[in-house]
Amino acid sequence: MITFIPLTGFLGAGKTTTMTTTALALQEKGHRVAVITNDQGVELVDTHLVRSKLDSVAEVTGGCFCCKFEDLVQAVVALTDSDGVDTVIAEAVGSCTDLQATVVRPLRRYYGEDMVVAPLTTVVDPLRHKAFERAARRGEPESDLSYLFRQQLTEADVIAVNKLDTIPAGHTDELLQGLREQYGDATVVGYSAATGDGVDLLLDAWEAPAGNHAVDLDVDYDRYAAAEAQLAWMNQEIELTAVGQEFDATAWGRTVLDRLSAWAAENGAVIGHAKLTVDAGEGEFAKLSLTEAGAPATEDRVLTAASAGARAVINARVACEPQELDRAVADAVSAADQVTGTRSSATSPVSFKPSYPRPVHRLTPAGA
């Protein structure tokens, strides 16, 4: 019997770090764990990072789990058949919602004899949550992105508040209690996937009986689609060559994201997330990320040795038009080349907006 653990949550919430940290913790408890990443595009930074830490990794690309349901099932089957795993953790695209009806219930209905589906977990960034709450308190009309964020919380069996190490300790209890009062049907836990503090609370929440979520989520698919369409998605591959002897790959990545952050702040563009890797080969790579306009890049993994050449991959999800993101990233790459002494050769820009979500299945609680 396979245990399937579904994760959802807005872009930049830390789902991949949560998935990796919990997978390692479960392995220490004797489980054989595999993970599945998911994205609207291809060439995923997250998959690269996860494969550096875990052996059994798959990805579902070109759409979210609800629209690529059979691909998800095939990935689970392949992992269990080839690697003999007993637990699969899967993170959905950060702009996805309605997973209870389109993924969780169909898995239980059609594959329940071979699979135990754990409680649906929504991973939350406390600073992102605070920003949406602040807009609501000001009486602003609910944006489509805020609507999407709220739907992700409403359908959660477990609300997992990540990144508690990034907020003052005195604010934690107030935040968690507020979520418990607002979403009374959910189990609310707080932790930091980066430090590991509180991760055992999340593991305990996954062991609770899941059942069928009682809420029949009333999703306005037009608003859902509009929220996704606010974001331009870029997955781009870039070949880097040192103009002189060698260059600092981490500094190159930091410059790209810092320039993109400054551009987004200047133009009022919300950053869902921007991530990049700079791979020098032989398992050596830098990985950096950005989740807020105007903020500095976070260095998740540093490449200390200088490089003569490298392959960079950029994943960016920004609330703007695709051509605007193409220009912004091209300008940021040009600036990074000048700062670090590199020559870059990029694939054609691949920024796009997701198509209208059309789930393969949608089961109400009665229909499940």
TrEMBL record:
Residue stretches making up the CobW/HypB/UreG nucleotide-binding domain: 6-184
Start and end residues of each stretch annotated as Disordered: 338-368
Biased composition (Polar residues): 340-350
InterPro entries per the UniProt record, alphabetical: CobW/HypB/UreG_nucleotide-bd, P-loop_NTPase, Zinc-reg_GTPase_activator
SUPFAM superfamilies xrefs: P-loop containing nucleoside triphosphate hydrolases
PANTHER family, A to Z: COBW DOMAIN-CONTAINING PROTEIN (PTHR13748:SF62), COBW-RELATED (PTHR13748)
Record-given protein name: GTP-binding protein
Organism: Streptomyces ovatisporus
